Amino acid sequence: MGTHTPRTRNPERTRKQILDAAMVEFTNKGIEGARTDDIARAAGVSKRMLFHYFNSKDGLFQAVLEKIYLDIRSAEESLDLAGRDPLDAMTELCTFSFEWFAKHPEFIAILNEENLHGAVHAKSSDSVMTLNMPLVNTISKLLKRGETAGQFRPDVDPVELYISIAGVSYLYFSNLHTLSEIFGRDLSSKEELKKRRQHVVDVILGYLCHPVSQPSVTVDKSRKKSNEN
Question: Rounded to an integer, what distance in angstroms lies between the CA atom of residue 203 and that of residue 98?
């Protein structure tokens, strides 16, 4: 007679399963439309277990919000912006932001939903600001190095700059379908994405670079150098 081996509980794995399922549900249906029964079923856990890890649907959405910020900020850290030439680093940051939005539609959807609710979950989070401030510090140091080298204009606000970097990419993807329709162009095509990515870099560097020494930096060249490193 065989013996039954009890399944070992893995809290980290269970929490990840719930978060992954919740990410899909909130992305597709928003907070109001999402159902914890469906999330629990997709995660392969009981509804009781879901509420054991996350006290409420709002608590679960807050955890998802924190996760999407953690994911993008962790990926940005791997770029090693602090150890690179300021121009290359800024080009890489612009390119990275654009490509992240392109590859992670859930990021757009979750942030849109949070803004619809007045950032109530971000306000009650202990980690959202903590997760985002290191990037501001990195950009601030990058700006100072670029200014010292005569590459960047002086007195640039790092928060304002990042809002601009994110904004010129974010709107493109958040309104991708309507923009494609009203202008009669498939903005999701590879060619259009390539053009827009370069446009983002040109816009940011056009503002940032010193008027006397404004360079012509291509995205492909910068990406190639990054890949070689």
Answer: 13
List, for the chain, all residue ranges whose pLDDT scores fall below the cut of 50.
1-6, 212-214, 224, 226
- Please give the Cα distance from 210 to 199 (Å, whole number): 18
Contact 173, 101 (CB under 8 A): yes
Tell me how far apart the alpha carbons of residues 124 and 186 are, in angstroms, rounded to a whole number.
Answer: 39
Give me 97's structure tokens: 């932001």
User: Residue 83: its pLDDT value, please?
Assistant: 83
| Of residues 136, 170, 139, the one with CA closest to residue 152 | 139
What is the rounded CA–CA span in Å between residue 121 and residue 128? Answer: 9
HSE, CB side, 13 Å, CA atoms: give it for residue 155: 0
C-alpha span between 55 and 52 (Å, rounded): 6
pLDDT in tens, 185-217: 999 999 999 999 999 999 999 999 856 444 555
Please, what's the b/e burial string for 114-145 (b: 16 or more CB within 10 A of its CB; e: otherwise)? beeeeeebbeebeebeebeeebeebbeebbeb
The C-alpha torsion from 116 through 121 and 123 to 127, rounded to 10°, is: -130
